[in-house]
Amino acid sequence: MIELPKMVVVGRGVRRYVAKYLLSLGTGKKCFVVSGCGATRGIAKEVAESLMDGGFEVSQICVSSAHVDEVDRVELEARSYAPDVILGVGGGKAIDVAKVVAYRLRRHFVSIPTAPSHDGIASPFASVKGFERPTSVRTTMPILVVADVEVISRAPRRLIVAGCGDLIGKFSAILDWRLAHRLRGEYYGEYAASLALLSAKHALRAARALSAKKIPEEAVRTLVEALISSGVAMGIAGSTRPASGSEHMFAHALDIVANYPALHGEEVGVGTIMMLYLHGSPMWRKVRKVLRRMGAPTTAKELGVRDVDIIEALVRAHTVRPERYTILGEKGLSWEAAERLARVTGVID
Ligand SMILES: [Zn+2]
Question: What is the separation of C-alpha 263 from the centre of its chain, rounded to a whole number of angstroms?
Fold first, then answer.
């Protein structure tokens, strides 16, 4: 079963036309808008006002984190309001929370990203802290994605660069997927894999533009489109396989070991360097160079963790998602092998 968004709008100022898009999709007019509590609240307010101008009924709520407690709180509010549509406006947290709530309430979900920091903006998967596992959970595919380039290009550089890191992770994710196909006979979808790889290639190419003092809007637009493509690749595959392999398992393990020390895409970038090396792919050097050039972390220090945290995360990575076969195998890495891997790739000194 392939699940895709019904409408994806990318452009300048498109946040003001959400009412029009919803009307054409025939979703109903009662909207529940979930945003972050910082700068994204203002954007959510703009969206809410334009919805009300279009004759929609709107209720707004803000979340401080993507934690299961916040999900429960928002769900309670949403249930009593009984909306037709739930909209997530934010960098990541608000979108993840809104997505899970929409899924629980079986309502339409609309994704309005304010930063290009990860590929959850157009996928049916959400990452929420406090669930049984640190990996993503399957929820609902957004019926509509509204990516306003005017807003997204104003996002902090760190978030934009992190989005690039998340995309570059597809290089090792696809190698893992192919390996699982050859070794385990797991389903492998060439089309979904190609689409995910394409988005990673665009992220690599965007590196030069991202290292510029002022990131050009055109580069941000390409990045947003690549993140959406990656989400669509997951929709086509029906799983996160094309977008998430051993590099993501390392990132999730590091979140457990060091309590979410850095942005998801930053951790994935570092994981990608090491997992490409494990796969024997010469690409690891290029990925490291590109990440360095755009100012993304490539070392333990830059991630804000200790060397032993990196080693421990590598050793534990295979346990994060035991059913997902990757280059880490069933037993994972020994402490010595993990230490050597981190050292050879320059992640620790
Ligand atoms: Zn990711």
Answer: 10
Q: Where in the chain is the domain with CATH 3.40.50.1970?
A: 7-152
First to last CA, the chain: 46
Contacts with 56 (C-beta within 8 Å, 6 or more apart), sequence order = 19, 22, 29, 30, 31
100 residue type, one letter? V
Residue 57 per-residue DSSP state: E
Report the side by side order of strands in the sheet with 57-63: 7-11, 144-148, 108-113, 85-90, 30-36, 57-63
Classify domain 7-152 by CATH number.
3.40.50.1970
Contact 116, 109 (CB under 8 A): no
Q: What superfamily does domain 157-344 belong to in CATH? A: Dehydroquinate synthase-like - alpha domain (1.20.1090.10)
Q: Give the C-alpha separation, 65 to 176, whole Å.
A: 31
Ligand 1 centroid, distance to 245 Cα (angstroms): 9
Residues of the chain with CATH 1.20.1090.10: 157-344
Per-residue pLDDT of 32-80, as tens digits, reads: 999 999 989 999 999 999 999 999 999 999 999 999 999 999 999 999 9
Q: Please tell me the distance between residue 236's alpha carbon and the centre of ligand 1 in angstroms.
A: 17
Structure tokens at 321: 């998602």
Question: What is the Å distance from ligand 1's center to 267 Cα?
Answer: 9
Ligand 1 midpoint to CA 232 (Å): 13
- C-alpha 61/C-alpha 56 separation (Å) is 16
Percentage of residues in the chain having pLDDT higher than 90: 88
